[in-house]
Amino acid sequence: MIEASRGYVRVRVRVPEAYLLLRACETSRPGLLVLDGDGRRVASIPLPGMGAPAIDAATIAKRLKAARTATAVERWRFSAGGAKENIAKLHEQLASSKGVSVVAQKGGAMTLRVVAGASTPGKVAEAARRMALTVRWHEPVPVAFVCKAELKPAAFAAAFSGVAGAWHLDPAAGRAFITPLLLDSEGFPAGWTADVEAREFVLPGIPQGGAACRVALAPARIPGVVALFADVFNERQTVVGRKGKVDWAAVKQAFVAAGCKAKEQTRSK
Q1: Distance between CA atoms of 200 and 76, rounded to whole angstroms?
Q2: Residue 126 · residue 177 · CB < 8 Å
Q3: Could you tell me whether strands 196-202 and 73-81 are parallel, antiparallel, or unpaired per DSSP bridges?
Q4: 44 membership: H or E segment, kind and range
Q5: Terminal Cα distance for the chain, rounded
């Protein structure tokens, strides 16, 4: 098993931060979650413990080796607005698309699994437009960019083609669809300004167990918040939100209401 793991970049995620990945990445604890370099899910391999079935080392090694060449899958979440019958048609069309499966649908809210390369957010938007529907994306997060120089599609594509986590690019609109797992507002190419910003909060006395998830997820309910990065053991958290759209006082109050008196501080480099 050790030999099979060579070549992977290994990151140990402890509880309670691990809880934040369970639903988003459809994985289990304890286990091995395999992601590609852009944060797409490749495989989830359960490990013995916490009631999981026993699995021998040879089987784990076999699955790790298979994951090296497995096709990654993206998780999409969006809300469609418009006539109910047209939302139902969009759901039916997406469910029958090659490489796409609908995981959940409630009203206009849809969660999809999409094989990498099988579709693009643009195709969903175009299908929705033909049905007189509007689409609001939650994941991956659409991030708009402006540049001091003239915005040219070719320049945008060249600048963002290597940005980790940018699953899809819309060069004509100067927009990238980025997974929340890698949405770091300070990791964008020089010269490009995004419509999102990150703020860091100190969370003194945050619980160290599962209760920490309640605190960590509290800002997610605030309009405009698009990504969360919890660092429970160091009692801090980074919150990413839309510039000019987030009530940061409300974010701080959400932490307080969850049981932790938060303090905003200058973001560390």
Answers
A1: 26
A2: no
A3: unpaired
A4: strand 41-46
A5: 36
207 Cβ neighbours under 8 A, 6+ residues apart: 16, 214, 215, 259
In this predicted structure, what is the pLDDT of residue 80?
Answer: 95
- Whether the Cβ atoms of residue 58 and residue 3 lie closer than 8 Å to each other: no
Q: Which amino acid is at 200?
A: E
Residue 261 sits at φ, ψ, to 5 deg, of -80, 100
d(CA 205, CA 44): 32
Q: Which residue has tokens 């026993």?
A: 54
pLDDT at 227: 96
Taking only the tens place, the pLDDT of each residue in 162-205 is 899 999 999 999 999 999 999 987 778 888 999 999 999 999 99
Q: Which residue in this structure is represented by tokens 């998780």?
A: 75
Give the pLDDT confidence of 51-109 residue by residue, as tens digits: 666 778 898 899 999 999 999 999 999 999 999 999 999 999 999 999 999 878 888 89
pLDDT over 90 (residue 23): no
User: 259: burial class by Cβ within 10 Å (0-12, 13-18, 19+)?
Assistant: middle
Q: Are 198 and 186 in contact (CB under 8 A)?
A: yes
d(Cα 44, Cα 29) in Å, to the nearest integer? 10
**Hey, what are 160's tokens?**
């963002």
The Cα 39–Cα 261 span in angstroms is: 32
Residue 102 CA from chain centroid, whole number: 17
Find, among 18, 10, 14, the residue nearest to 2 by Cα. 10
Residue with tokens 């060449």: 69
Structure tokens at 36: 């590609």
Whole-model pTM?
0.91
Phi, psi of 103 (to 5 degrees): -80, -45
Secondary structure element (H or E) that encloses residue 4, with its range: helix 2-5
